[in-house]
């Protein structure tokens, strides 16, 4: 049906009177216009672009209730608070709510603009009955990538949404996500029954974020350096609760700044208090697991550091996207180690067969980002289907172009040595064999008699460790359970000479823009 032109005028009026904004931002207006016209839509917009507005605003204009599907109760309650603060009639139906009866009565009576529910509701017959007896204006599906196995956060319950929504075919659908590569987008459209013409993709570039990715020598030291250059609020992501605690302590002890911890193992009150303190502060650093950040709206975060690799490029983009939402310069710094990739590749083996390929592809894409000698931003944006300029001028590699070397020959020597020694020895042993330094263990095993003994000269020897890391990131070398090295799936092509290997040479001390301090 054609849109009532007055409706869009009313939407613009509400934008000011209810939300207090002068104008739409980016492609919000397009999305709102489609929704107001009853057209199903997939909005792909980066974190901070203002996705919530694109359903909250129509919800205040259209007759009936906008049903919002959201994967996290905490997120829903944040949204609920801010919607109610704007005077919007909103409610949640979650396991954490006590006022179900009132909410259901209000819903049936058409007295709600927004109703937030978890995806689990979709498969409950009573819930379908409730929808059938209530006026609906819109289905809004937040974090829509959860519907796709290609996405990084698959939630089987999202698959039940399609049959539910199909039962109310006259109600338009608005799917929202910040993170979706081309494959995932196509899947979201198919899984939620949205036409391809209904996709609105906002630009992913965050030009004020400076991306830096470097090898981790000492996470604490490197982040202390980062904090010295960034006096404002920051987020430090660490992979485990234990590392979060340790890092928070080290950082606060060495910098004298307030550093708080945040992870799922802390009592709920402490977590909430730390989060609130961080949001209100102008200088607090929060050290956290990835549990932190969803739904947090703090515009002036000046840096986001990763003390280990994130789960994927999508996760990296989302987590770093919490920096610099105010548009002022911000830093995103990732510190990686070969062990991060080795562990992640090991975990692939524990996944069900059908998910392994997708996860492996994701890990390879992340390794490519870490390993590239080219522009980080260009790689990120290409990953999201954009066609960016070759150089951004605001990432480590653009600011300080690294030296790249063809290391195929040394890589083959290293892989051969791993193979010839039986794929069970650690890097130290392999290094001794290759450089011809025979200790007792080398001699006892007869490794001084191997053809690879002593084939790496002094000038190449210094590259062995970084090459080993690079090969691990690429899956050509994998760590065994006992700390040894074995050949990975990508090794044969290199050994057979079918694939050459280029590597960014590690910076020589003092030549880097940042963190290159002499000890
Ligand atoms: P997303 O869900 O896309 O990450 P949010 O919906 O949380 O983003 O919005 C991010 C921030 O942008 C919020 O502080 C919100 O109030 C603000 N915002 C949204 N739309 C506008 C607008 N048109 N003008 C100014 N600020 C806006
Ligand atoms: Zn760049």
Automatic annotation (TrEMBL):
Q: Name one GO molecular function term.
A: metal ion binding
The processes (GO biological process) annotated in the record are: DNA recombination; DNA repair; DNA replication; SOS response
- Domain named Helicase ATP-binding is located at 32-198
Which keywords belong to this entry? ATP-binding, DNA damage, DNA recombination, DNA repair, DNA-binding, Helicase, Hydrolase, Isomerase, Metal-binding, Nucleotide-binding, Zinc
Which residue intervals define the domain Helicase C-terminal in the entry? 219-367
Give the CC-aspect GO terms: bacterial nucleoid; cytoplasm; replisome
**Catalytic activity annotated for this protein?**
Couples ATP hydrolysis with the unwinding of duplex DNA by translocating in the 3'-5' direction
Q: What InterPro entries does its record include? A: DEAD/DEAH_box_helicase_dom (IPR011545), DNA_helicase_ATP-dep_RecQ (IPR004589), DNA_helicase_ATP-dep_RecQ_bac (IPR006293), Helicase_ATP-bd (IPR014001), Helicase_C-like (IPR001650), HRDC-like_sf (IPR010997), HRDC_dom (IPR002121), HRDC_dom_sf (IPR044876)
Lineage: superkingdom: Bacteria
Give yes or no: UniProt keyword Kinase. Answer: no
Cofactor list = Mg(2+); Zn(2+)
The cross-references to Pfam families, in alphabetical order and at most eight, read: DEAD (PF00270), Helicase_C (PF00271), HRDC (PF00570), RecQ_Zn_bind (PF16124), RQC (PF09382)
Enzyme Commission no? 5.6.2.4
- Family assignment from sequence similarity: Belongs to the helicase family. RecQ subfamily.
What name is this protein filed under? Answer: DNA helicase RecQ
């Amino acid at each position: 049906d054609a849109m009532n032109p007055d409706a869009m005028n009313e939407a613009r009026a509400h934008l000011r009177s209810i939300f207090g904004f002068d104008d739409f931002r980016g492609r919000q207006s397009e999305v709102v216009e489609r929704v107001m016209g009853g057209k199903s839509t997939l909005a792909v917009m980066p974190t901070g672009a203002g996705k919530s507005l694109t359903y909250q605003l129509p919800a205040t204009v259209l007759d009936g209730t906008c049903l919002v599907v959201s994967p996290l109760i905490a997120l829903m309650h944040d949204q609920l608070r801010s919607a109610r603060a704007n005077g919007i009639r909103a409610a949640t139906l979650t396991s954490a709510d006590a006022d179900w009866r009132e909410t259901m009565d209000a819903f049936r009576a058409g007295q709600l603009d927004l109703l937030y529910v978890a995806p689990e509701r979709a498969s409950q017959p009573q819930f379908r009955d409730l929808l059938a007896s209530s006026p609906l204006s819109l289905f809004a599906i937040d974090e829509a990538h959860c519907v796709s196995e290609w996405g990084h956060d698959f939630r089987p319950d999202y698959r039940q949404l399609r049959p539910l929504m199909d039962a109310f075919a006259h109600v338009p659908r608005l799917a929202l996500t910040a993170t979706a590569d081309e494959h995932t987008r196509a899947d979201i459209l198919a899984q939620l029954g949205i036409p391809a013409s209904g996709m609105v993709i906002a630009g992913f570039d965050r030009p004020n974020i400076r991306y830096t990715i470097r090898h981790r020598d000492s996470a604490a030291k490197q982040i202390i350096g980062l904090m010295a250059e960034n006096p404002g609020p920051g987020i430090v992501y660490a992979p485990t609760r234990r590392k979060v605690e340790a890092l928070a302590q080290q950082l606060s002890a060495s910098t004298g700044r307030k550093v708080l911890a945040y992870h799922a193992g802390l009592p709920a009150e402490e977590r909430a208090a730390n989060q609130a303190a961080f949001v209100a502060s102008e200088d607090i650093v929060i050290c956290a697991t990835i549990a932190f950040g969803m739904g947090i709206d703090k515009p002036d975060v000046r840096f986001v550091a990763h003390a280990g690799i994130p789960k994927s490029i999508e996760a990296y983009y989302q987590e770093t996207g919490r920096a610099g939402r105010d548009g002022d310069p911000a830093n995103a710094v990732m510190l990686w180690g070969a062990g991060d990739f080795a562990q992640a590749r090991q975990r692939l083996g524990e996944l069900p067969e059908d998910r392994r390929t997708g996860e492996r592809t994701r890990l390879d894409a992340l390794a490519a980002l870490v390993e590239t000698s080219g522009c980080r931003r260009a790689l990120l944006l290409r990953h999201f289907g954009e066609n960016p300029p070759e150089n951004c001028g605001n990432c480590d590699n653009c600011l300080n172009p690294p030296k790249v070397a063809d290391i195929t020959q040394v890589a083959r020597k290293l892989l051969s040595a791993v193979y010839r020694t039986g794929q069970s020895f650690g890097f130290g042993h392999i290094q001794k064999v290759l450089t011809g330094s025979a200790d007792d263990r080398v001699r006892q095993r007869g490794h001084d008699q191997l053809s690879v003994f002593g084939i790496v000269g002094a000038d190449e020897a210094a590259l062995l460790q970084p090459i080993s890391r690079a090969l691990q990131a690429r899956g050509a070398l994998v760590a065994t359970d006992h700390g040894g090295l074995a050949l990975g799936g990508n090794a044969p092509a290199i050994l057979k000479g079918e694939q050459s290997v280029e590597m960014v040479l590690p910076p020589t001390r003092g030549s880097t823009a940042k963190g290159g301090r002499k000890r």
